[in-house]
Amino acid sequence: MASWGEASQSRLIGKRIARLSGKDKVTGKAKYTYDINRPGLLYARILRSEVAHANVLDIDMSRAEELPGVKAVLPIIEVGKKLRYQGQEIAAVAAETDDIAKDALRLIFVDLEELPFVVTKEDAMAEGAPQIRDWVGNKSNPGTDERGEVDKGFNEAAVTVEATYHTPVQTHVCLETHGHVAEWTDEQNLTVWASTQGVFGVRDDLAGRFGLPANQVRVITEHMGGGFGSKFGPGVEGHTAAQLAKITGQPVKLMLTRKAEHLVAGNRPSMTQHVKAGASRDGRLIAYDMKGYGTGGISSGAGFQAPYVYSVANRRTERFNVTINAGNQRAMRAPGHPQGAFAMDSLMDELAEKLGMNPLEFRRINDSNEIRQAQYTLGAQEIGWHRRNTIPGSGTGVKKRGMGVGSGLWGGGGGRGTQARVTINADGSVEAVTGTQDIGTGIRTAIAIIVAEEFGLTPTDIDVKVGDSGPGLRSGGSGGSQTTASVAPVIKTAAEAAIQKLFEHVAPLLQAPVDDLRVGNGTIYVASDRTKTVTWNQATGLLGMESISEGGNWDPELREKDVAGTQFAEVEVDTETGNVQVLKIVAVQDCGLAINRLTTESQINGGVIMGLGQTLLEERIMDPQTGRMLNANLEDYKVPGTFEIPEIKSIVFDTHRKVTGVGEPPCIPTLGAIANAVYNAIGVRIRELPITPDKVLTALAEKKA
Amino acid sequence: MSEKEKKQSKNISRRSFIKGVGTGTVAATVAPAILVGNEKTAEAQTDGAVDSAKIQLNINEQVYEVDVEARTTLLSVLRDGIDTAGDNVDLTGAKLICDRGECGGCTVLVDGKPVYACMMLAMDAQGQQITTVEGIADGNNLHPVQEAFIKHDALMCGFCTPGFIVSSVALLNENNKPTIAEIKEGLSGNTCRCGTYPFIFDAVETASQKM
Ligand code: FES
Ligand code: FES
Fold first, then answer.
1. Residue B180, domain CATH
2. Which H or E run contains B62?
3. pLDDT, tens digit, for every residue of A523-549?
4. If you measure CA to CA, which chain A residue comes closest to B165?
5. Interface pTM, i.e. ipTM
6. Which of A44, A98, A141, B126 has the most CB atoms less than 10 A away?
7. Contact status, residue A183 vs residue A191, Cβ threshold 8 Å
8. B196 in contact with ligand 2, CB cutoff 6 A
9. Which element (helix H / strand E) includes A155?
10. Which CATH code fits A7-30+414-558?
11. Total-model pTM
12. Is residue B8 over pLDDT 60?
């Protein structure tokens, strides 16, 4: 049976290893799509709608076309069609400089007939609201689910809680905006540098769009500045870049502006839940009834998890999607989970309080996940759970402290569909090639670690080539925390096959059977007689004019899925300013076998910080008067900065030796943990995110009144 | 639209265009911003009236001669500039992320002080020593800040990293033994979406011990 072996036998796997791309990234040498500079490069920009809903009566690009330096103009929307949200694409230009492209956009004249719009889900559902899609209403049909005996559950409940929880729309805020550099090497061959989470997805999409065989489109993503779920296909901007490059016969760079990034490049849908739940006297959650809805903008897809994580046999849910005139949702780091977790973890604490029970105890009773049960103990110890206020809000002084807990669960088990090749050359050099991409998670380094472990080398000895569809070794998009669990088993089996081949060359020289050979530190030796040894280069020298090149296969024995996590937060709330400062987060994260403990900790930190942003800071604000987003920049849309960062204790909870993904899970439990800690500090519950100072002060004032 | 109509709409004056918008019951322009800029930009451009000038910039101890317009930022020279010999400046370490002085992704040193290159006009950078992230290492020897960033994994996607490296160097040049509060203050002008902050703080602390 395939296995990763014992921890004690690993030289590299599970250790803290600096990422291979580190040097390029700290010196500015790393080239992102945004940095690609090609001979004859043109700069493209897109003119976007500033109104939320309108008929396009006319687009006149003739003056833009005449502007010196403009090489091409391209209408995107057809006259007679409807614009349905701010930011929607109208037309594009390509010019010799970015400034000229900017000027050219101002010379495009567009006549629009404005139409009534709705940009909040409440407005969209109001009586007499304009219907913004001709073929279907603003509010979808409800999706319902009922299990057990809900009414009976409520009848038996000793306590019930009824509450409404809200989370707003959050945007991804990738620091490298979505974008591409497209270059036609001839009429039939297209090369695209793409800021993407899926080079093969982009390749296949563009090939289909331009009627090319897939192998005649090459997509390259050497480095990538953040995606968080929003960067899978080429999108309108990718199609536009390739089309402009085709028209002009020159390479074209088209990166979204920061504003467009907020408007059209995806977001996490909002959520509103009206929920009623009941628990028995002995602390069992026995009834749950939820009506909820959310908006993902002009599209559907505003789903969320409810109930979440904790078991409740008798439950009824009804949920629907609301369409508004705003940019589409896209997958965002654990889609549906953080918002579901915020509501559920808040609800759990409200029930526990009514029962007069410690919220952690209440969770233990209702959580069937064994890993999380162990994590509760560990996390509570680490944060000092006994120090929490037994009576919420009972602290004295202006600044009050409190503690809370939250939970999460994510799939992350990977799957088939990765091809890889590990090559040993006669000069001793080693290459590992696969079509995945390193979006900042460190998969490049993880691949090197796995191969180096198998070969007795160091990770820097391995030349890892990812982020290029050119070699034709396919791998899936980096989403769903699937990358490591999809790629690692294939790399491992490829490396195993390759070293076996090398052993076959070495065996005659060492006069030992192949299965008695082992790798040492840059050597190959005979297990039963350790005096018989050759260096790595002596061994590979035996290959002469050949090289060894092996593929691998995905072995489900090497991975695990269903990743559990728990977080504890300690906060300090300033009751005069309303400011919430998170002091500490303890994140106990199931990680399976962490190939690289250092980059795994980075991922946990990153998840916690994104969860913190969602809890305290982030919100897309739409203006119901103008239909526009009011904070489509990085000043008014606030993401966490240095001052918001608490002490984060990332606990890599590795109870088994199978790989799994950890990119998304750590952003889930943070919301409930912080929200519950705020309640524990001040004794008033804030059920709407983000928990901003105004909400804290209002809540405190209402409590007093 | 017919050719004639196209011509007409092309020659439409700003005033009549606005009037057109006003009289049409529901016609609207795409954006006030677009409308406002229209005529002026158009005339400036079509008259060839955009002024450009040849300037010299001292970047990473090398002199570059570039043609710039009044509006050209230092950042755009670094990233997209072409010197008068026809070579790309190609210093793409500094990134444009927010385009308005909010994120620090474009931070460079100007006479040793950290500056947002997206907010500085190229013309204003004349006569000063500009150091970009590419000029922080001493040849192949990395700066202690760079070493420490790698060691502590103070980077994930790495897009914000050049800005953080430059800001950290500037911070330590001012104060070589900063407290954690001073590190947070010193780097508060930089944003990282991947959430590398805790390890950045560790890295700056480690680097400070070596300086
Ligand atoms: S791009 Fe200059 S500060 Fe953000
Ligand atoms: S490392 Fe990705 S934004 Fe900072």
1. 1.10.150.120
2. strand B62-69
3. 999 999 999 999 999 999 999 999 999
4. A26
5. 0.97
6. A44
7. yes
8. yes
9. helix A150-156
10. 3.30.365.10
11. 0.94
12. no
